[in-house]
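## Example pair
The file below holds two records. Each record gives the amino-acid sequence first, followed by its C-alpha cell line.
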Amino acid sequence: MRTGDWADLALAAVMERIAGTAAQVGERFPLYADPADGRWKTTGRGSWAGGFWAGLLWLRARYTEDPADRRAAAACTARLAPWMDADTATRGLIFWYGTAPAIGDGAAEQLRERAASATLASFDPGLGIVPWGDAFGGPRLLARADGAPGTVPLLAGIAPGAAAAHLHRHLDLCVGPAGERQPPAWKFDGAGWLPCEEPRPGWARGRAWLLLAVADALLSPEVAAQDRPRLEAAARRLLAGSDVLRGRFVLPADAIDPTGPLDTSAAAITAVALLKLARVPADWSLACSYRGVALLIRLAERHLTYGAHDGGRPAGMLLDGCYDAARGLAVRHELIWGDFFLALGLASLDGLVDLKKV
C-alpha cells in the first residue's frame, strides 16, 4: 500500500462497511461484530454506543453527498432521543458523537441542545461532576474515565464552567501527578472517593478517553479559559505515559496483562485525540500530528479488512478491538466506536471534517 493512497483506500473500505452494516442491522444499533464473518451483535436502543453508529452514518452522508444517506443518518439520530431522560453520563458519548458530524441538520442540533441541557441538569456541583448515573445498574455516584469524553464538548456551549469542573474531577482521580495509571473508575461513599476494582488501572481505553476529553477542552476557548495551565499540565501528564507518543502502536486492552488481547478501538480514539492536540498551539503539536497519522496508518495496514483478500470478510472491518477483557466479552472483535474513530480520523485527513468541531 503506497503512502500516497493508503488513507483514501482505508476510508473507502470503511464507508463500504457502513453501507453493509446499515443493510444488515436495519433500525437496530450495531455494537460489536464477529471477526470471522462480520455479523453484528445489535441492540434495540443503542446502549451507550448508539451515538457512534449515528455518527458513522453522518460521516457516510458527508462522504457520498447522497440525500438518501443523509435521511438515513437523520432517522438514526432521532432514534437516540429516548436516552435524553436516562440517568447516565454517557449522554455525552451518545448525543455529542451522534450529532456533531451532522453539520447543518436542524433536528440534530436541537437534539444536541436538549441533551446538553439535560446533562447540565444532572451536574452535581458538590461533587463537581455529572455522575455516572444508574441507567446501566450499579452505584450512581461514580466518576469513570468514559464519562468525560463527549460530555465536555456537549456542555461547553452552555456551561463551560461545569464542563471544566467535570473534566478536572476525572483527571484528578484518574491520572497520577506524573502521568502514571490510576484506577479509571471511582465511587463516592458520602465521605470521599474510593477506587473501583473494575476497570483496572491498566485499561487502555480509559487513558484514551481522557486524552480525547482533554483535547476537546483545549480546543474549546470557553472551557480552556477556565484553567488553561491546568489543562495543559494534564495533557502533558497523559502524553508522558508510555506508548502514547512512542513505542507500540496498538496496546493490550489491559496493560496489567500484556499478553492479553489488543484493543484497536483505544488506538483509534488515541489517534483522533492526538490529531486534535496537534491543532492546539503548543510544543507538542508536531509530535502529536506525526504519531496520530502513524497510528491511523498502522490500523489501516495491519487491522483493517479490504474484502476479497481477507478470507471473504467484508471490507472495512477494524479488527482486534476488545469490548471487555475482564469478562472475556468480544475480545478480538470489530467495535462500533472503533470504526467511528477510525473513520473520523481518516475523514479529517481527507478534509471531510474539522476536528475542532467534531
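Second record, same layout:
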Amino acid sequence: MSGGRIGVRDWVIAAGVAAALLVAGLSGQHPATDLDPLGYALLVTGGLSLAARRWAPLTVLAVTALCALGYQAVGFEVPVIAYLFAVYSAVRAGHRIVAVAGSVIMLAALPLAILTSPHDWPVGEAFTQSRNVLQLAWLIAAGAAGEALRQAERRADEAERTREETARRRADEERLHIARELHDSLTHQISVIKVQAEVAVHLARKRGEQVPEALLAIREAGREAARELRATLEALRDDDKNPPHGLDHVPELVQRARTTGLDAKLTIEGPRNDVPSAVDRTAYRIVQESLTNIARHAAAATASVRIDYRPDALVIRVDDDGRATPDTTPVPGVGLLGMRERVTALGGRLRAAPRDEGGFSVQAELPVDRTS
C-alpha cells in the first residue's frame, strides 16, 4: 500500500477531515490568544497531510501526531481524528510496530501538551482531557481496521498468485500432452519417409543411376520435417531453450527450394532491424508455406522472395510464375488459412491472389512497434 501517486480520492478524504477539524476548532470554546491562527493552521495541515497517507504512511503518522500535539498545546480541544486515520494507514501498510510505538508516545505526550495550553488545566483534568481527545479504544479500532484490510489484501494477492501458478502449470501440462501426441503420431511416419528416401538414394547411387531430383527433394524434405518436428517438440517441452525458426533461416528455405528445380531468389530491402519474436516466426512460416505451395501446386519455374524492412512494418512478398491467371479463383487451403490467421493475430494484412502477369502472389504486412 505504501507507494503510488496521490489521487483525487485521497485529496477528497484529506480535505473532508481537514474541514471537520477546522469546524470543530471554530465551534469549540477556548481562550482567545495570539496563537489561534497557528492552531487553525495545524488543524488544517494535519487533515490535508492525509492525502499522502498511502504514499508515505510513516511521514503522515509523524506529521499528524505533531499537528495534534501542537493544536492541543495552543488550546484547541479537538479530537485527534487525523492521527487515527494515520494509524489506520500505517498498520494497513504493514508498519504495525511503528504505529504501536507512536501511539504509546502519543498517549504519553498528549497530557503534557494539554498542560502547556492556555487553559491552565490541573494535572488530573489534563489526563482526563487527553482521554477525551484520544481514547485507547479509538486507537485499537483504527489499528484493527488497518490490519484486517491488510490481511484481506494479502489473501487476495495470494489467491491471485495461486491462480496464475495453476494456469501456468496447466499450460505446461497441455504443452507436454501435445508434445507426446505429436511424437506418437508423426515421428514414426516422418522417420519412415526419411529412411526410405535415404535408402532409395543410396541404392540408386550404388547402381550408378542418376538420382531423380524429386527423390532428392523428398529426402531433404524428410530431413527438414524431422528437424522441424524435433524443434517443435523441444519448444513445447521448454519454451525458452529452443526458439523456433525465424527470418535468419529464410535463406535456407530459398536454397532448399532451389534443390527441387525451382529458380528461387531472395531479396532483402531496408536496414535490417530486430523485430518481435512473433513477427519473426510468422515471417518465416509465410515464406515456408508459400514456397511449399509453389512446389506442390503452382507448376512454376521461378519464384521470388522479397523481405522489406520498413520503419513501422515488415513486408513479405512471395511471387511465382506458375499457371495461376487473373481469372483464376484461388481455393484457400489449410496452409493459406493458417497464414491468414497468423497475420491477423498480429494485426497485419495478408493478400494472396493471382498476378496480372500470371502466377500467384502472397504479400503479408506485419506491423512492428519500434517503441516496445
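Notes on the second record: Strands lie at 263-269, 302-309, 313-320, 349-354, 360-367. The CA atoms of residues 35 and 159 lie 53 Å apart.
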